[in-house]
């Protein structure tokens, strides 16, 4: 059994490109960065803590025999500029601050991935770092973009798979990682757990 430890519809859609069947079990954790914690260590810790939290919650939700093979997939995405982690904006003012920081320059999108079995004995994690360059963005555009509703639950206040794509001048790295789940790396790690995506998708 494969379990996605996320409520994100974007991650659910991306994972469905690799495997046909999986369960969804969101994990609530404290997402506050530690003092002087590097962005890479932060996103890796977030993914691992989500997987661990989902595994702890699993027995009370699914009545599966303990010997059953269960694999948890967890991920976390952070937008990073000047070593500053940009989370999700709480309001228009926060979105303005974030998008002004990103305007006309390059930033990094760090997306971590963690796969873990139910016991936690087998845990594999990685971090995918993608460079994204924005064109200059006006305050009027930021306000109009905010009114679309898209930035409100997105790290860094934008969605590359949505209207936010109009700000993207160039990108170097993984598009799927910026959306929320690095497909290449996910397929590679799934194979370490005995799940081969092309075989899964070819089954009738």
UniProtKB/TrEMBL annotation:
Cofactor dependence: a divalent metal cation
Signal peptide start and end residues: none
Active site: 76
Molecular-function annotations in GO: dTTP diphosphatase activity; UTP diphosphatase activity
The UniProt record lists the keyword Hydrolase: yes
Sites marked Important for substrate specificity: 10, 77, 161
Localization annotation: Cytoplasm
GO cellular component, one term: cytoplasm
EC category name: hydrolase
EC number annotated for this UniProt entry: 3.6.1.9
GO BP annotations, alphabetical order: nucleotide metabolic process
Highest taxon listed in the record's lineage: Bacteria
Protein family: Belongs to the Maf family. YhdE subfamily.
UniProt name for this protein: dTTP/UTP pyrophosphatase
Organism: Marinomonas posidonica (strain CECT 7376 / NCIMB 14433 / IVIA-Po-181)
